[in-house]
Amino acid sequence: ICEVNSSRDSESEESEEENPAEMNMIWIFSRRFQLSVPKLVSRRRVVQELLSDLLQVSHSLFSDSFFPVLEPVIGVGSACEGWSPHEEEDVIYCMFVPLKPPHGHAFHLEPDTTGEMPQTRMRIRVEQVCTCTGKQPDQSKLCFLHHSEQELKRKQVTSLLHTLCTGPYLDGEKIALWFQTFVISAWSVVPQSRHYSMKVLPSCRSCKMKLVKDSGRSLLVEMVFSVQQGDSDIFLSSQPTEAQFPPSTTWLESYAVAEAKFFRQVAMQAPRHSCHLKCLRLCAHLLEGSGISVYALKTTVMHLLTLIPLSEWQHKYLLMRVDDTMHYLRCCLEEKRLKHFFFGNEDMPEEISLPPDFQEAQPLNLFQHLVQDPAAQTEALKKFDKL
Questions:
Q1: pLDDT tens-digit series, residues 341-357
Q2: Residue 311 falls within a domain, yes or no?
Q3: pTM
Q4: Residue among 341, 365, 367 nearest 354 (CA)
Q5: Checking CA distances to 377, which of 52, 109, 212, 346 falls within 20 to 30 Å?
Q6: 102 in any annotated domain
Q7: From the record, what ranges are coiled-coil (predicted)?
Q8: Which residue range is the domain that position 352 belongs to?
Q9: Co-location of 193 and 275 in the same domain
């Protein structure tokens, strides 16, 4: 769709290396937009330690229950990728909490065809399974399938089907309320309660927390519940998008874990002081008010990171990469097409694990709305050109 000329002739590269005015401009941009956010890493570690401690408490409390098993958190979103479009006080540290079925239960993913995009909407059907046999049957827990209802009521706690499900389907709103209640009751037990005050913020399908230190410094944390698709890096998320707010038993396909993994791989392979994160943050500021989403910007930079050699993302090339990013976006607006990074992408890094059908799938178009609304494209180009 848009070819990016990553190979510059030696004369232009040499002139940029020796051009103090351009290097000074990079320094000015870095200061003006506070592109370097070293605190993200340290604060992310604080958040991960806190949530790890909370999950340990949950395991001890719910070990004999049939609530979902909470797996170790996975940092997702821009703050966990190493950048953020927001100012420091507005950064949200988002963490996925993968859910596994408890003893005697199984999760089955079913396409939800009630919406316009069935490939991104799923329901998680909870099924009781026999626990009488197996390599290590748990003698302390009765089998839901082969013990009488009276015996189960007398000797065993309630099945997941009767607590956090609506009908046979896992309910995101019920899970969020259950976990929010747990966090409030367990907060005094975790070590961080000695250093932070905590408030659970309103949220229907996630757990949002505001942590405030004695100094007044605050941290915003959001825990989003998720279910992994097979062994892939694609998850189903309890948190709806602004564009879609489906029923509480509908879970939306999320690529956030795969995106975070992609940025970790880039960080390991890119040159020291790579400018790709600064490019993201700077472009996010430049695009404010343009109508182009941060996700479209991030998708663009991810494509460019696979098209342009990582050696060309050194700090001295920041202005070139910003120019490439804006040029690529302009081309996509003209073509009314921006390909989703994880569908039908031949340049997908091998480290990213995707469901088999993703590679064969027709690439999703993030600018499909422009195809359906020519006036929106005209307005988008007009706003973009004003930049």
A1: 999 888 898 899 998 88
A2: yes
A3: 0.87
A4: 341
A5: 346
A6: yes
A7: none
A8: 270-386
A9: no
